[in-house]
Protein: DUF1330 domain-containing protein
Amino acid sequence: MPAFIIVQVEVTNPEQYKEYQKFSSIAMQTHGVKVLVRGGQQDVLEGQAPPRTVIMEFPDMAAARAWYESAEYRQAREARAGAAKMNMYVVDGLSV
Structure:
């Protein structure tokens, strides 16, 4: 069943965050990640939206964890240190 990584981001250092974006894009391309949402306009229907949202699709939970733990994404995380406040989690999707 598919799995989705959902990311909520508040960028605190835009210049440094550009480095993270560069390396995270390389990690996504290397691992064939399907990006469904990456930033974009948000329209709050209830509650409060984070400043930035990213949603990525993976074949399964193991593939999502493998991407997160990969050397390519580790480099991105290191580049992001101090540049953003981030919540990131993976959830199982539905088989339809």
